[in-house]
């Protein structure tokens, strides 16, 4: 019954989401803190107003507020530069469907977010994973000329490394490519720089953001894309008519409105990232300097699966990530930044292992 591409692919495997267990959950880069209380109030108010009507198909309330907030930090953005999605995964899907024809290809530095490969497989197109150097710097082949590559994904900061390319480096990549560059800024609020300004000067640069990580709203499902208005106009044809619902639009609008909450949260998470990194180093791991809300850790013994299993048996969940064949090592552990108490639990356990 199925297209061959679907039968042959294995499907994206999300991080474990065990329910009803008391776990120290450091495996999917969720925010350890609940969102702004204004988000819950806005969702409640929207629910009380009634859900019998369809939502605003273009999520104007969010786009209006987001345009103001982004303009305060970067060059001027108006609502027609923004496309909203059911999480930024939806944005990545829309871009893949809109840009990449049958028989063509996508490209991305690797190791990275494994959904990019899945999206290519669903679309039935080739994927070119360009290996990073062992220090996670991006291989020059990313910009090699190609007749087939129609979209390049660039997670920045990258996952699982937490490494960041500066806007000038991303601009150089974008200027060399002759296809769109989708800069996936899922973690950018934890970093010091971002690539929003590049969108203004290069129509082939698209920047995606999510409320799942820095706004503590992974359960809400809301993300957005910033690109030039004529690009947004084409991409909007591809999205589901009502891809964001009434409750998520209300919650997301309240969330981006509360920049004081965001600033406070980022300060806490970044401070704790520092402590987590130092603790992992003291426990004998090698770590990568992270600009995100997680730390990539490898151990000289290479016993990552055993460490992962031992932690899990004690109720601490981290992410075991495999990328067999990579010159920087076959696997490692990605540890999300939690609360100070969660860091303490993790580090105390590691000391006993
Ligand atoms: C978490 C994550 C996303 C997905 O975010 P959602 O908005 O929850 O769909 C996208 N890209 C990267 C690199 C991520 O880590």
Question: Count the strands?
Answer: 12
How big a fraction of the residues is strand? 15-25%
Look at the helices and sheets and give the structural class: alpha/beta
Mean pLDDT: 96
Q: What spatial order of strands do you see in the largest sheet?
A: 2-8-7-6-5-3-4
What would CATH call the architecture of the largest domain?
Answer: 3-Layer(aba) Sandwich
Associated small molecules: pyridoxal-5'-phosphate
CATH class (first level) name of the largest domain: Alpha Beta
- As a whole number of angstroms, the C-alpha radius of gyration is 20 Å
Give the full name of the CATH homologous superfamily of the largest domain: Type I PLP-dependent aspartate aminotransferase-like (Major domain)
Low-confidence stretches: none
Domain Aminotransferase class I/classII large: 22-348
Cofactor: pyridoxal 5'-phosphate
Protein name: Histidinol-phosphate aminotransferase
Pfam families: Aminotran_1_2 (PF00155)
List keywords for this structure.
binds pyridoxal-5'-phosphate; Aspartate Aminotransferase, domain 2; 2 domains; seven-stranded mixed β-sheet; 12 helices; alpha/beta; 353 residues; HistidinolP_aminotransfase; 39% helix; Aspartate Aminotransferase, domain 1
């Amino acid at each position: 019954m199925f297209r061959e591409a679907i039968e042959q692919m294995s499907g994206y495997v999300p991080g474990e989401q065990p329910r009803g267990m008391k776990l120290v959950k450091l495996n999917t880069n969720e925010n350890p803190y609940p969102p702004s209380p204004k988000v819950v109030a806005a969702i409640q108010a929207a629910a009380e107003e009634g859900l019998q009507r369809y939502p605003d198909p273009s999520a104007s309330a969010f786009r209006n507020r987001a345009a103001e907030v982004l303009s305060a930090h970067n060059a001027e953005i108006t609502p027609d530069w923004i496309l909203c999605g059911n999480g930024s995964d939806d944005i990545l899907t829309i871009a893949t469907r809109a840009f990449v024809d049958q028989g063509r290809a996508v490209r991305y530095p690797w190791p990275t977010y494994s959904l990019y490969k899945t999206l290519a497989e669903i679309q039935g197109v080739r994927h070119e994973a360009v290996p990073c150097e062992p220090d996670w710097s991006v291989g020059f082949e990313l910009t090699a000329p190609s007749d087939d590559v129609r979209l390049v994904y660039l997670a920045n900061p990258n996952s699982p490394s937490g490494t960041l390319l500066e806007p000038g480096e991303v601009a150089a990549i974008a200027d060399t490519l002759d296809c769109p560059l989708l800069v996936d800024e899922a973690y950018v609020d934890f970093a010091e720089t971002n690539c929003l300004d590049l969108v203004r000067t290069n129509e082939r640069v698209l920047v995606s953001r999510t409320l799942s990580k820095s706004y503590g709203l992974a359960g809400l499902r809301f993300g957005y894309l910033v690109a030039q208005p004529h690009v947004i106009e084409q991409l909007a044809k591809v999205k589901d008519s009502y891809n964001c619902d009434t409750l998520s639009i209300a919650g997301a609008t309240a969330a981006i409105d509360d920049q004081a909450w965001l600033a406070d949260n980022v300060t806490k998470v970044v401070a704790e990232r520092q402590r987590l990194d130092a603790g992992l180093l003291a426990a004998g791991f090698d770590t990568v300097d992270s600009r995100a809300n997680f730390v990539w850790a490898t151990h000289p013994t290479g016993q990552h699966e055993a460490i992962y299993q031992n932690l899990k048996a004690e109720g601490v969940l981290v992410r075991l990530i495999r990328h067999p064949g990579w010159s920087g090592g076959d696997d490692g552990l990605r540890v999300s930044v939690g609360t100070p108490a969660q860091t303490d639990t993790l580090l105390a356990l590691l000391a006993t292992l």
